[in-house]
Each structure stands twice: as structure tokens, then as C-alpha cells.
């Protein structure tokens, strides 16, 4: 497990560590980082044992640094997740985390369009949930028409192919596994 100590304080909290509360944030960062590495470097790419490292790999790492200057930092995730109840130092679930990524990526995309058009997240994102709001834990269903629309929106028009990351905010059970 990764525990990070001594990063810049998170907004008003004065917290400089993710000890005892950051596991969902960090695991989601690892998932998104892996998707970006697959996208930029391919599934078979492995980090070489010695430097120099691939510039695309270094670019992905820089997105996840522990400061507000890094697009997908713990600081920016918590800021984007305020509407979903994300607060530094508290437990959070997969639904809030997935919706936070959706918000952060949308914000990042809007800022990129306004500045230079260079996006940090080169794929569509689909948060799959079972209910309209996703919080009641219905069985997740992937709707092809929704995925196609998200890819079309990402490409700013129809395209023959677009990468997409599916996030399924599913709790298999704190006390038991839901059989649905």
C-alpha cells in the first residue's frame, strides 16, 4: 500500500498526509494512471529497470504529483469532489470517487479548450451505475448508445474509433456481497 507523507497541505485542512483516509483516492489514481499508460504506451509496455524513462511515462507521472499544479493530484480530486462529499481526512466510496473523476476530467477538458487545446485525458469517460443517481447500488448496465454518445462528444463529432474508460462504482460488500 502506498502512503504519502509531507505533501502540500490540502486546501483548508492542513493535512499533509493521506494516512488512514486516502486509499480510495490513491487506488483510483492508480487505475486512471494505468489507463493512460495503456493508451500512450500500449498494454505490453513495462517500465525499464534503468533510466532514461519514456517521456510519455514521465508525462503521466507528472499528472499525479502531490500539488495543486498537477492535473490529477489528490488536491484537485478533493476540490472536484466537494459536491459529492469528498473531504480530506474522511472515508469515501466508489460512487463519489467515480463522479469526482468525471467532474475533474470535464473541468480539465474545459480549461484545455480555453487555453491551448491540449488535454491531459485523451479518452472518453463513462461512469456506469445501476440507478439514475448511482447511489442506491443497482446492477450496473453499460448502454452502448450512451458510450457511443460520450465518444462522439469526446471527438467533437462522429468518429470510427475513440478510447473510453469505463468506471463501475460498485461495492461488492462491506458486510456481505449483493447477489444482484
Automatic annotation (TrEMBL):
<dbReference type="GO" id="GO:0006914">
    <property type="term" value="P:autophagy"/>
</dbReference>
<feature type="domain" description="Peptidase C54 catalytic">
    <location>
        <begin position="6"/>
        <end position="179"/>
    </location>
</feature>
<keyword id="KW-0813">Transport</keyword>
<keyword id="KW-0645">Protease</keyword>
<keyword id="KW-0378">Hydrolase</keyword>
<keyword id="KW-0653">Protein transport</keyword>
<dbReference type="InterPro" id="IPR038765">
    <property type="entry name" value="Papain-like_cys_pep_sf"/>
</dbReference>
<comment type="function">
    <text>Cysteine protease that plays a key role in autophagy by mediating both proteolytic activation and delipidation of ATG8 family proteins. The protease activity is required for proteolytic activation of ATG8 family proteins: cleaves the C-terminal amino acid of ATG8 proteins to reveal a C-terminal glycine. Exposure of the glycine at the C-terminus is essential for ATG8 proteins conjugation to phosphatidylethanolamine (PE) and insertion to membranes, which is necessary for autophagy. In addition to the protease activity, also mediates delipidation of PE-conjugated ATG8 proteins.</text>
</comment>
<dbReference type="GO" id="GO:0019786">
    <property type="term" value="F:protein-phosphatidylethanolamide deconjugating activity"/>
</dbReference>
<keyword id="KW-0963">Cytoplasm</keyword>
<dbReference type="Pfam" id="PF03416">
    <property type="entry name" value="Peptidase_C54"/>
</dbReference>
<dbReference type="GO" id="GO:0015031">
    <property type="term" value="P:protein transport"/>
</dbReference>
<keyword id="KW-0072">Autophagy</keyword>
<dbReference type="GO" id="GO:0006508">
    <property type="term" value="P:proteolysis"/>
</dbReference>
<comment type="subunit">
    <text>Interacts with ATG8.</text>
</comment>
<dbReference type="InterPro" id="IPR046792">
    <property type="entry name" value="Peptidase_C54_cat"/>
</dbReference>
<dbReference type="GO" id="GO:0008234">
    <property type="term" value="F:cysteine-type peptidase activity"/>
</dbReference>
<protein>
    <recommendedName>
        <fullName>Cysteine protease</fullName>
        <ecNumber>3.4.22.-</ecNumber>
    </recommendedName>
</protein>
<keyword id="KW-0788">Thiol protease</keyword>
<dbReference type="GO" id="GO:0005737">
    <property type="term" value="C:cytoplasm"/>
</dbReference>
<dbReference type="InterPro" id="IPR005078">
    <property type="entry name" value="Peptidase_C54"/>
</dbReference>
<comment type="similarity">
    <text>Belongs to the peptidase C54 family.</text>
</comment>
Amino acid at each position: 500500500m502506498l502512503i504519502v507523507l509531507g505533501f502540500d497541505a490540502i486546501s483548508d485542512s492542513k493535512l499533509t498526509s493521506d494516512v488512514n483516509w486516502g486509499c480510495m483516492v490513491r487506488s483510483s489514481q492508480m487505475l486512471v494512471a494505468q489507463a493512460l499508460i495503456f493508451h500512450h504506451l500500449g498494454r505490453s509496455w513495462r517500465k525499464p529497470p534503468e533510466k532514461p524513462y519514456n517521456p510519455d511515462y514521465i508525462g503521466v507521472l507528472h499528472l499525479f504529483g502531490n500539488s495543486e499544479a498537477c492535473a490529477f493530484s489528490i488536491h484537485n480530486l478533493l476540490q472536484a469532489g466537494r459536491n459529492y462529499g469528498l473531504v480530506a481526512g474522511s472515508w469515501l466510496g466508489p460512487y463519489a470517487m467515480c463522479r469526482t473523476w468525471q467532474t475533474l476530467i470535464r473541468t480539465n477538458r474545459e480549461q484545455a479548450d480555453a487555453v491551448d487545446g491540449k488535454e491531459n485525458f485523451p479518452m472518453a469517460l463513462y461512469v456506469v451505475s445501476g440507478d439514475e443517481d448511482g447511489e442506491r447500488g443497482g446492477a450496473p448496465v453499460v448502454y452502448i448508445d450512451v458510450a457511443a454518445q460520450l465518444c462522439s462528444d469526446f471527438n467533437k463529432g462522429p468518429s470510427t474509433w475513440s478510447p473510453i474508460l469505463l468506471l463501475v462504482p460498485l461495492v461488492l460488500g462491506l458486510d456481505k456481497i449483493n447477489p444482484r
